[in-house]
Predict the 3D structure of the following.
Amino acid sequence: MPKRVDHRERRALIADALMRVAAEQGLEGVSLRHVAAAAQVSAGMVQHYFRTRDEMMVFALAVVSERNETRIRRAVEALGATPPPRALLRAMLTELLPLDEERRADGRVALAFLAYTAVRPAVAAALHDDTAALRAFVADQIARSPLATAGRVDPEPAAVGLLAVLEGLGIHVLGGHYSPETALVALDAQLDLIFGRELPVETVSRAGSGRPRPAPR
C-alpha cells in the first residue's frame, strides 16, 4: 500500500525552510534550489507547492503576517477587555518593531519583501488590502483621542504618519542604527503628538490647587 502523503506537513516543512533562507540571506537569496536544500527535499517537491518565486514571496509575507497577528493578539489581550486607544496602539505597534531576534527575523523578511515588490506591482497588490485595513484601524483609534475630538488632530494623515514612523524605526533598528530603547522612546513621542502627553498621576492630582507643583522625584 503506497505511503499516504501529509501535504500540510510537507508544506509546513517547506515553509519553515523558506523562512530560514529568507531570514538568513534575504528574499534575494530565496530560490527553489535554496529552499529545497534547506528543507532537504527535491526542487521538484518545492515546485509542487510553489510554482513560481513570486508565490514563495507572497507566502513568506503571509507567514510573517500570521506571526505578527499572534503576537499582537497576545499583547492586546494582556491589556484587558477595553484598553484605551493609545495603550492599544502602543501594544500593537510595539509588536511590529524588531525588538528581539524573532521579530528581527520576521522584520528582515518583511523589509526584503517590500524591496522585492517595488518593481513587481502585481506581487505588491497582495499588500494593498492589508495595508489599507491597518491604516483604517489606526485612524479609527486616533479618532477617539482627545486631540482628535477637539479637532486638533486629523486621524487619517496622523495614522499614515504614525505607520511611516513605525516603518522607519524598524528599518533603522534592523540596520543597527537605533537601539530598541531609542525606537520605543521615539514611538512614545509620536503617540504623544497624537494623543497628548500622559501626565504623572501626582501632577494631575495637584491640578487646580492654584500653583502647579512638579511630581516628587
